[in-house]
Amino acid sequence: MAFVSGFAGAQIASGSSAQVCRAPAAVRMSAAGEEMSRRDLMAGVATAAAGLLVIPGAAMAGDAPKQSFFGGSSASSPFVYNMKQTGEILYKPLNDEDLQFHKNVLEKSRGELDRTSEQIARKSWDDMRGVIRNQMYNMRHSQLRLIESVESAEKQKAAKKNYNDLKKSLEEMDLAARNKKQEDARKFRASALKAFDSFTTSVGI
């Protein structure tokens, strides 16, 4: 007897007759079930992967852009130099070591700003803008901390005004340098130094 074996649908030859052996229905249903399970598994993996891709985007969407106070298109300028407090500033006295640290910061910044006269004379506008931005960044924390250390509400108010006057004058200096206007740069430099000295007086240093 000739015998041929194979998968579902293979022929078995016996004499002159031939029979077709077909896979049982249970086997076909099992195969279909396995195929469906594989599809479900793949769909689940794809859904999870899509969820993971959404997470970074959602986090980034909540990030607030940094503000630029000197014009230009950059939204990531680190020179955030505005008064953030609202309402009354709480009195926070400084110890001698902290007070000396903040005094040193302002003294260095005062010297750097004083030397901008040379940059204006040479029309070194990029150098001048670099000094302005660096010193505004360096001074900001010390200025705000010194304002908090002023016990008198009246003096605190004066210190905040001088702080904002200095900020405005330095921004005007930066704009004059960007536009390469020498006389404007000189004028706003003078007003910036005046506001600087008024600020240090108002915080008692």
From TrEMBL:
Gene3D superfamilies: Oxygen-evolving enhancer protein 3 (PsbQ), four-helix up-down bundle (1.20.120.290). It comes from Porphyridium purpureum (Red alga). Its main location: membrane. One of its GO terms (biological process) is photosynthesis. Keywords: Coiled coil, Membrane, Thylakoid. This is Oxygen-evolving enhancer protein 3, chloroplastic. Residues 153-183 form a coiled coil. The keyword Coiled coil applies. One of its GO terms (cellular component) is photosystem II. It comes from the Eukaryota.
